[in-house]
């Protein structure tokens, strides 16, 4: 990481609204201008940062994550990911960016039913056109990294919630994406599994991955280096915090290509 490198995420005057007329919801609006008009959200995230996005229900967290992850487009404003203005990309180019640059982890795991852990983790590599022997090698390495090498043949209904989420983390990291985006990754987990999954995410960040995690929980935000708070679609605080929990050294490695 060099000081001269531009931030991996650059957001300028970004807004997102749903609906029209009186029914318009300004999910992301930023501060208000003199006439009450939304000025939009501005945000830079440096490569290798570990950001927690907090805020009450409906404050715009998932809307922000969907835009950061190129799953949705802003109503106005600009979003540069790794220097590319994603507003200029078509649907096919966006899906390429998602596949190459971003790993997603969702609260509900989003695993494919009746499919083995190994096949789940191989899936993004298949989309990326990686040949089968290499796919298998990298998927097994990713499962090993999350401590599930011995569960490679298990289907989701044969795994605990924590194990399912670790499969989802393996799937998110197997393509060695620049950025990991997680929306309430521990929302459905007990405290033990939460610590396990957060330990893995900490390790990925220690290995250089940029991490953005959306959470309601202080326990989760405590792991991040920076905490951003949203209220009604605007960033109201952005605080850098001393890192409390360090990852176990064994996890501080990447699953390289
Ligand atoms: N597809 C949609 N159509 C209309 N309104 C939407 C849509 N998605 C989100 N909203 C509205 O935008 C606002 C922000 O929603 P968002 O999902 O980003 O909140 P959140 O902070 O993730 O909340 P939670 O903590 O409950 O997940 C809410 O008022 C929500 O009702
Ligand atoms: Mg949400």
What does this structure look like?
Helices cover 30% and strands 23% of the residues. The chain is built from seven helices and eleven strands. The chain is an alpha/beta fold. The protein is globular. Bound molecules: adenosine-5'-triphosphate and magnesium ion. Residues 61-62 line the site of magnesium ion (MG). Keywords: ATP-binding, Nucleotide-binding, Transport. Residues 9-257 form the ABC transporter domain. InterPro entries: AAA+_ATPase, ABC_transporter-like_ATP-bd, ABC_transporter-like_CS, ABC_transpr_LolD-like, MacB-like_ATP-bd, P-loop_NTPase. One of its GO terms (molecular function) is ATP binding.
Topology:
Layout: E1 9-18, E2 25-28, E3 41-45, E4 50-54, H1 61-68, E5 76-81, E6 84-85, H2 91-101, E7 102-106, H3 117-127, H4 132-145, H5 161-173, E8 179-183, H6 191-206, E9 210-214, H7 218-221, E10 226-231, E11 234-240
Parallel strand pairs: 4-9, 4-10, 7-8, 8-9
Antiparallel strand pairs: 1-2, 1-3, 1-5, 5-6, 10-11
The structure holds adenosine-5'-triphosphate and magnesium ion (MG).
The site of adenosine-5'-triphosphate has 12 residues, from β2 and α1.
State the main characteristics:
257 residues, Rossmann fold, six-stranded mixed sheet, five-stranded antiparallel sheet, 11 strands, disordered C terminus, binds adenosine-5'-triphosphate, binds magnesium ion, nucleotide-binding, ABC transporter ATP-binding protein, ATP binding, AAA+_ATPase
């Amino acid at each position: 990481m060099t000081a001269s490198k531009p931030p991996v995420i650059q957001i300028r005057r970004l807004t997102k609204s749903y609906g029209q007329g009186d029914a318009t919801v300004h999910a992301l609006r930023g501060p208000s201008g003199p006439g009450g008009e939304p000025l939009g959200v501005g945000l830079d995230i440096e490569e290798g940062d570990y950001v927690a996005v907090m805020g009450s229900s409906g404050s715009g967290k998932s809307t922000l994550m969907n835009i950061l992850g190129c799953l949705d487009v802003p109503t106005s404003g600009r979003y540069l990911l790794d220097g590319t203005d994603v507003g200029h990309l078509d649907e096919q180019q966006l899906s390429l960016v998602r596949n190459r640059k971003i790993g997603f982890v969702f609260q509900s795991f989003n695993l494919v039913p009746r499919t083995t852990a190994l096949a789940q983790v191989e899936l993004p590599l298949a989309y990326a056109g990686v040949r089968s022997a290499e796919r298998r090698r990298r998927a097994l390495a990713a499962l090993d990294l999350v401590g599930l090498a011995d569960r490679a043949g298990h289907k989701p209904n044969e795994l605990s919630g924590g194990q399912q989420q670790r499969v989802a983390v393996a799937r998110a990291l197997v393509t060695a994406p620049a950025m990991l985006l997680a929306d309430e990754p521990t929302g459905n987990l007990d405290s033990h599994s939460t610590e396990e999954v957060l330990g893995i995410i900490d390790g990925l960040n220690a290995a250089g991955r940029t991490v953005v995690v959306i959470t309601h929980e202080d326990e989760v935000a405590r792991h991040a280096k920076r905490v951003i708070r949203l209220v009604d679609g605007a960033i109201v605080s952005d605080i850098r915090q001393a890192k409390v929990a360090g990852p176990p050294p064994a996890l501080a490695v990447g699953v390289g290509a």
